[in-house]
UniProtKB/TrEMBL annotation:
GO terms for molecular function: DNA binding; DNA-directed DNA polymerase activity; phosphoric ester hydrolase activity; zinc ion binding. It is an enzyme of class 2 (transferase). It catalyses: DNA(n) + a 2'-deoxyribonucleoside 5'-triphosphate = DNA(n+1) + diphosphate. Residues 339-422 form the Polymerase/histidinol phosphatase N-terminal domain. GO terms for cellular component: cytosol. It comes from Candidatus Staskawiczbacteria bacterium RIFCSPLOWO2_01_FULL_38_12b. GO terms for biological process: DNA repair. Its EC number is 2.7.7.7. Keywords: DNA damage, DNA repair, DNA-directed DNA polymerase, Nucleotidyltransferase, Transferase. Residues 1-315 form the DNA-directed DNA polymerase X domain. SUPFAM superfamilies: DNA polymerase beta, N-terminal domain-like, Nucleotidyltransferase, PHP domain-like. It holds the Pfam family DNA_pol_B_thumb. CDD domains: NT_POLXc, PHP_PolX. This is DNA-directed DNA polymerase.
């Protein structure tokens, strides 16, 4: 499908335009790109069938954008993009991964120091050449050094959200083979770790050769690391590896337990077996030469004296001791979720109308959705001011009325995702905040503050009588950005004191992190799992917020959007 390729070009062009300081236009390209990404049909088919007219009917695509699309479909190029690229021939994607570097700074680095890629950048900061540049300084150079370190650390690990759909697709194909009796994900993917080193599959089959033949010739396989009767490994064009192991039925549970890991958890379980005079391996649980368990994971755990432990808990984080006491948490499940309160509509940077977002929530089986568009400070997202928020309030009431008249038991709540300004105040007037069902507050700008200042800022926001939820509380983005300078204990005690809810953001942020979730639960501070959807399809990301919550040992009582709407509203000020 050409949609992704063209979207990528549009995002690039938007960046170049930003560098040149062109107002508004970058947004048009970003919007067009997002629209193409969300499109179900292939844009080249749309064009062949309906021509220019059909292109211009796509949401967010006007005349200028369809010019570009047509050009790309005819020539495989977009001239504007080529020109920009020639003026700034750098590895923009790689450099942008370094926190503290935006497109404008990257241009200066290229023009002044000839920096084209991460290697060049590393050399330059080592020689201390960056700090003296106009607009940079010591602090920025220090941030770049830290950013580079972060990029290096995370190299080679892929985002759970990116890998899971691909892995599920392969799993489905494996399950579809007549030679395959059972198949499962294993490894970090089954534990739903936020980043994945490689993908592990486990299969039961009486005819491994056939399964391996199929596996190594899957579409997207670029290189075969190895192919045997029990194990094969491949490298995918998308940049990650996949392992497949074939085991006999009688060892399936033991193998699943072993290859799910984590390695640290396995060391503990193996030691437990030894203490009982048993041997635990990927083949089964043995007393001497006699196999006493192995077919299911339940039976394997039981044989070594443990109840079943959910994969998300298997990190040697105390789960075995707690299991021995019979006190394992009853983890929250996706089906417990009754609504999503952090959703954006096309009133600001989102792609769809309030009604479309609401209908999607209904299709997911939710009882409510909360629309929480950005506030005015966030100009790149077309944030709403007081006047627009009040108008939106009416629009939401209209949608609710419509649903009511059609007999739907579903409610659209009205919130806002308001910016926490540098001094901790909220950028929307209190009278207006008071009219909304709930208020989410977020730090988006001025994120490089010292810890004391940042905590004072968050304290003031939490003490604001209208603020109910802090979104993405620590500011981290997986593989992209570390958290702000925060004191999490302080954040928890403030949340407790003020009754503020902390968000688990299901997007690429996955913020809160799992260990913070566990601490939040321990302090009995409530959380909410939201998707931060800017597109209706992103509401499906809820499962990753839920798995993150599970990795943080959360139960449904810890998460307020497992409650019916009237109970939920009691948590808001
Ligand atoms: P990853 O791929 O880095 O995200 O993490 P995992 O956990 O998927 O690790 P991977 O793919 O190397 O191995 C899958 C599982 O197999 C791992 O979680 C535990 C098990 N395993 C692999 N090698 C060893 C080992 O040397 N000792 C033990 N106890 N378990 C191992
Ligand atoms: Ca793995
Ligand atoms: Ca592996
Ligand atoms: Zn948001």
């Amino acid at each position: 499908m050409k949609n992704q390729e063209i979207a990528k070009f549009f995002y690039d062009i938007a960046r170049f335009l930003e560098i040149d300081g062109v107002a508004f236009k970058p947004y048009a390209y970003q919007r067009a790109a997002a629209s193409l990404e969300g499109l179900k049909d292939d844009v080249s088919k749309i064009y062949i069938k309906g021509g220019r007219k059909a292109l211009e009917e796509i949401e967010g695509i006007g005349k200028a954008m369809s010019d570009h699309i047509e050009e790309y479909l005819k020539t495989g190029k977009i001239k504007l993009h080529e020109e920009f690229k020639k003026s700034l021939p750098v590895d923009m994607d790689a450099l942008l991964k370094v926190e503290g570097l935006g497109p404008k700074k990257i241009k200066v680095l290229y023009q002044k120091l000839g920096i084209r890629n991460l290697k060049d950048l590393e050399k330059a900061v080592k020689k201390h050449e960056v700090a003296p540049l106009f607009g940079f300084g010591e602090k920025t150079e220090k941030n770049i050094v830290q950013g580079l370190e972060f990029v290096k650390q995370n190299k080679g690990r892929s985002l759970l959200q990116d890998i899971m759909p691909v892995a599920r697709d392969v799993l489905k194909k494996l399950e579809g083979l007549k030679e395959v009796e059972r198949a499962s994900l294993a490894g970090s993917l089954r534990r739903r770790k936020e980043t994945i080193g490689d993908v592990d599959f486990l299969v039961v089959s009486g005819n491994p050769a056939k399964v391996m033949d199929f596996f190594v010739s899957l579409p997207g396989v670029k290189k075969v690391w190895g192919k045997g009767n029990t194990k094969s490994s491949v490298h995918m064009a998308a940049g990650f590896d996949m392992d497949l192991r074939v085991v006999p039925q009688k060892s399936y549970g033991a193998a699943l337990q072993y290859f799910t890991g984590s390695q640290a958890h396995n060391i503990v379980t193996r030691k437990m077996a030894i203490d009982k005079g048993l041997k635990l391996s990927e083949y089964g649980v043995f007393r001497g030469a006699k196999m006493i368990a192995g077919k299911t994971e339940e039976e394997v755990y039981k044989a070594i004296g443990l109840p079943y432990i959910e994969p998300e808990l298997r990190e040697d984080a105390g789960e075995v001791d707690v299991a021995l006491e019979g006190k394992l948490p009853k983890l929250i499940q996706l089906k417990d979720i009754k609504g999503d309160l952090h959703c954006h509509s096309n009133w600001n940077g989102g792609q769809h109308s309030i009604e479309v977002m609401a209908k999607t929530a209904m299709e997911r089986g939710y009882q409510y959705i909360g629309i929480s568009d950005h506030s005015k400070t966030l100009k790149i997202e077309n944030g709403l001011d007081e006047k627009k928020l009040l108008k939106q309030h009416e629009a939401i009431q209209k949608v609710n009325k419509k649903f009511q008249d059609s007999g739907f038991k579903f409610q659209v709540l009205h919130g806002v995702e308001a910016d926490i300004l540098k001094d901790g105040s909220i950028d929307i007037k209190s009278e207006v905040l008071a009219q909304l069902d709930y208020v989410i507050a977020s730090v988006h700008l001025n994120t490089k503050m010292e810890k004391k200042e940042m905590m004072a800022r968050i304290e003031k926001a939490m003490k604001n009588p209208h603020v109910d939820i802090i979104a993405h509380p620590t500011g981290r983005i997986v593989n992209q950005r570390d958290e702000y300078q925060i004191d999490f204990d302080k954040m928890l005690s403030l949340a407790k004191e003020t009754g503020t809810i902390l968000e688990i953001n299901s997007s690429a942020r996955l913020d809160l992190r799992d260990f913070y979730i566990r601490r939040t639960k321990a302090e009995n501070v409530k959380m909410i799992i939201n998707t931060d959807s800017h597109h209706k399809d992103q509401m499906a990301l809820m499962e990753y917020g839920v798995s993150q919550a599970r990795r943080g040992w959360a139960e449904s009582a810890d998460i307020i959007n497992t409650l019916p709407v009237l109970e939920l509203l009691k948590y808001f000020k």
